[in-house]
Amino acid sequence: MASVTDRPADGSPPARTALRWDYAPAPESRDAAPLKPRYDLFVDGAFTAPQDGSVVASVNPASEEVLAEVGFAGPGDVERAVAAARRAAGPWAALPALERGKYLFRIARLIQERARELAIVESLDGGKPIRESRDVDIPLAAAHFFSYAGWADKLSYAVAGRPHRPRGVVGQVVPWNFPLLMAAWKLAPALACGNTAVLKPAETTPLTALLLAEICQEAELPPGVINVIPGAGETGAALVRAEVDKVAFTGSTAVGKEIQRALAGRDIGLTLELGGKSANIVFEDAAIDQAVEGIVNGIFFNQGHVCCAGSRLLLQESVADEVLHKLWQRMQRLRVGDPLDKNTDVGAINSAAQLARIEELVAAGEAEGATRRTISCALPEQGYWFAPTLFTDVAPANRIAVEEIFGPVVSVTTFRTPAEAIERANNSAYGLAAGVWTDMGSKAFEVASALRAGVVWQNTYNKFDPTAAFGGYKESGFGREGGPSGLLPYLKVGA
Ligand code: NAD
After folding, report:
1. Residue 288 and residue 412 share a domain
2. Domain presence at residue 24
3. pLDDT number for residue 4
């Protein structure tokens, strides 16, 4: 909405500087997503109270308001869920593949039908802007179920005609940054391959996984094929140590290492999708305005709570000043605030613990001598917030250049030659993703093939597609999710 101030008394048009552009509030209605006061575990096709677990409040990080009480699974509940999945495994694997595909298709359709409700709950529970939940998380979750519905009866194409069978019961643990989408990444390929699953959502964002459980009931999915057991780290630890045939984990590198140690010596399939510190590289021949949009999308999308966030910005020296100037201008126009407002660009930080981690690393950046710029904007009094931040004068060994911040904070360094850019980008314990911005196709391909990163985006960033494989190198983990490669971890091939 434009408002004109200081109109000259003689009626002439106002000076350009006197034009002020404001946005009217555009809140999504909470009425479209009525929450129940309490949600329980989903085991064997029914919602049941925890037998040896607890009941914990799920909180809106934008307001600290309690959204609902949620049952958290104890060790006995984990065993119950795994036993239900075990009972369901034989009949599910024996179903004609086309029938399995139909269930996945139904789930996808029901996600679409309940898309508005799911988007609102995702934003309430996790703090992400409704624009992202509505346009990215929920449509992509449905797309994963659609895509793997189509794969269910075509598995032999994914394994080059070799004999294959499902692994059995899979234990799946997901993080809080894309709660429903991560659940879809894991459940859809597992079920398409004929496995049954026990899913543990993250402790701060269990609600959309429980709505997905309602959708499984609506789709008349046979009991036990999908079980959802909310809980904290100890529930996840109990699940990966239970009698499962495969573990799929998305989360931090520290917990991934712990899981790998716990599973040592067991003949069990393991996929780890872990952290990242991805390089976004801008060459002097790039379309600068487009690159600036890509930088903003790369690091401020979902408050930077993105495993593949472009958190290390590498600028070619000759354009560094120009890019930084334009980036800073653009950052100051980012709208931080109510996640349910359709105009919000940057929502709430997911939890008090995550906010403390971001603050600690930002303080370390300042203490190590980097120059900090944080946009000036009014932040709500309640809830957890961190304004978009840019660090320059960053040394490659600084903690902010090495450690995953998982927040809206970008660290900038410069380079002179493509070889230096590649060396700097690869100088990381992680290898999840990268971005390359250049007008020259040959340079883009040469640099991309030299980068040790699972995904390299060219002249774009943070683009996801259910038909494309996603996964890391080095401490970003192993195994791929998405596309035909995402089926392989859920099959025993050649046996
Ligand atoms: P986290 O590792 O603390 O938690 C992830 C999940 O693991 C949660 O459900 C948690 O309850 C559970 N968990 C915690 N301790 C456990 C244990 N000992 N055994 C089993 N499960 C346990 O990570 P987080 O802070 O929730 O998520 C952020 C991390 O996830 C970041 O490092 C991010 O990069 C990573 N991530 C990676 C990808 C990817 O695809 N590579 C995607 C999203 C997030």
Report:
1. yes
2. no
3. 45
Q: Which residue has the tokens 């934003």?
A: 123
Instruction: Judge whether 20 and 52 are in contact, CB under 8 Å.
Output: no
Residue 109 lies in a domain: yes
Kindly tell me the sign of the dihedral angle through the C-alpha atoms of 344, 399, 452, 201.
negative
Instruction: Give the pLDDT score at 21.
Output: 74
Claim to verify: residue 259 and residue 128 sit in the same structural domain: yes
Active site (annotated) includes residue 307: yes
225: Cβ below 6 Å to ligand 1?
no
Tell whether 164 and 289 lie within a shared domain.
no
Please state, in angstroms and rounded to a whole number, the distance separating the CA atoms of residues 451 and 447: 6
Query: Global pTM?
Result: 0.95
Give the model's pLDDT for residue 1: 42
CA of 220 to the centre of ligand 1 (A): 30
| Gap between the terminal Cα atoms of the chain | 64
Residue minimizing CA distance to atom 13 of ligand 1: 233
Count of structural domains, the chain: 2
Structural domain boundaries enclosing 130 = 30-274+476-493
Q: What is the CATH number of the domain that holds 57?
A: 3.40.605.10
The answer to whether the CB of 400 falls within 8 A of the CB of 411 is yes
Mutate which of 54, 173, 258 for ligand 1 pocket (most atoms within 8 A of beta carbon): 173
Predicted pLDDT at 14 = 64
Q: Per-block average pLDDT, block size 10, for the chain (495 residues)?
A: 55 66 91 97 98 98 98 98 98 98 98 98 98 98 98 97 97 98 98 98 98 98 98 98 98 97 94 97 98 98 98 98 98 97 98 98 98 96 98 97 98 98 98 98 97 98 97 96 97 88
483 lines ligand 1 (CB under 6 A): no
Q: Is the CB of 85 under 6 A from ligand 1?
A: no
Residue 31, CA distances (Å) to 111, 137, 207 in order: 18, 20, 16
**What is d(CA 43, CA 259) in angstroms, rounded to the nearest whole number?**
24
Helix axes 207-218, 115-126, angle to 10 degrees: 160
| Residue 17: inside a domain | no
Q: Report pLDDT for 208.
A: 98
CA of 221 to the centre of ligand 1 (A): 28
Domain membership of residue 471 (yes or no) is: no
pLDDT tens per residue, range 272-308: 999 999 999 999 999 999 999 999 999 999 999 999 9
Residues 389 and 412 in one domain: yes
